[in-house]
Amino acid sequence: MGLLVPFVVRLWNIHSNRLLDDVALVRLAAEQAFDVPAVLRTQLDAFRNTPPPAGCLLLRGLPVGDLPPTPPEPTVATEKSAATEIRLLTFASLLGEPVGYLPEHRGDVVQNIVPVKASASRQTSTSSKVNLMFHTEAAFHPHRPRYLLLYCLRGDPQARTTIASIHGALPHLPQDVIDVLFQPLFRCSVDSSYLDGRSNVLGPALPVLSGDVANPAMVFDEDLMVGIDEEAEEALHMLGTTLTEHHGGVVLEPGDLLVIDNSVVVHGRSPFTARFDGTDRWLQRAFVVEDLSASEGERTGRVITTVFGE
After folding, report:
1. Helix (H/G/I), strand (E/B), else coil: 153
2. CA dihedral 76, 56, 194, 187 (to 10 degrees)
3. How far is 26 from 32, CA to CA, in rounded Å?
4. How far is it, in rounded angstroms, from Cα 89 to Cα 102?
5. Considering the domain boundaries, does residue 150 fall inside one?
6. In the Cβ-directed half-sphere of 146, how many Cα atoms lie within 13 Å?
7. Cα–Cα–Cα angle for 1, 269, 271, rounded to 5 degrees
8. Rg (Cα) of the chain, in Å, rounded?
9. Gap between the Cα atoms of 267 and 275, Å rounded
């Protein structure tokens, strides 16, 4: 596979049946961080401080506990305990500051990613019938997350989470294309879920690649991003093709936690057949930023509230 770092572990047990709001969940998770086994803390510290070229970390064998049926919608209340939410946020807290985005499942800091009938064929995390195209999470957002965490509660053998790192693609791109990708010649429209009925607009011109030429960061969305001229469009197309040719992936199983460095990795998902009968795939997702102060004035507590569209 070449893009994941497997690590098998049986984590400590957390028992909680209390109904907790997001602030309380993050606070409790931060307290739990002191109890994380040293070997895991070391693994996460190394991932944060010296990011591997693959840009991903896979932890396996985490508890999921007794689960109710998979909810039909991400925000439908379930009888599940808060244990997996706290565990997920514990890992998130070791990487930075967990946040929610108001349009994403009402701003929950832990979101349930489940197939939804109404969005089965859309380019969204709750789809199932379509190939979810490669994208930087919230590529259009000025406060997009640095890390994305996916905790599998129920898996589906058809659903392959696909991942591609710029470090895997860069050696296969011509230098003239790389030079174009470093220029602010690209614009990204806004995911429809962030518009709340407002008209979509293209964001400001930005480069796809930035930072160190030999070790760049990347922001890319195969569906939402366009080049501002023909040369930029060709470079964007070549990058997308190269990422597809040099990608990897994993079929997440219950107890898997996939950590993605959103600054260098794009991700997607293969189609799968949803049954909508309570047995479907169920992931929990968390977003992490490095600095809360960057979104000051566009954030309430831990919920980023930036408004897009016209």
Report:
1. strand
2. -160
3. 10
4. 18
5. yes
6. 17
7. 115
8. 19
9. 24
Q: Domain of 64?
A: 6-304
Q: What is the pTM of this model?
A: 0.93
Alpha-helical (H) ranges within 119-226 are 166-169, 175-181
Q: Is 203 a domain residue?
A: yes
pLDDT, mean over the chain: 91
The tokens of 12 are what?
């400590």
pLDDT grade for 39, boundaries at 50, 70 and 90: confident
| Distance of alpha carbon 157 from alpha carbon 160, whole angstroms | 7
Is residue 310 domain-resident? Answer: no
* Integer Cα distance of 91 and 98 in angstroms: 10
Collapse the DSSP code of 269 into the 3-class scheme (helix H, G, I; strand E, B; otherwise coil) and give the result: strand
Dump pLDDT digits (tens) for 256-280: 999 999 999 999 999 999 999 999 9
In the chain, the number of structural domains is: 1
Residue 264: DSSP 8-state: T
Asked if residue 36 is part of any domain, the answer here is yes
User: Which CATH number fits the domain that encloses residue 117?
Assistant: 3.60.130.10
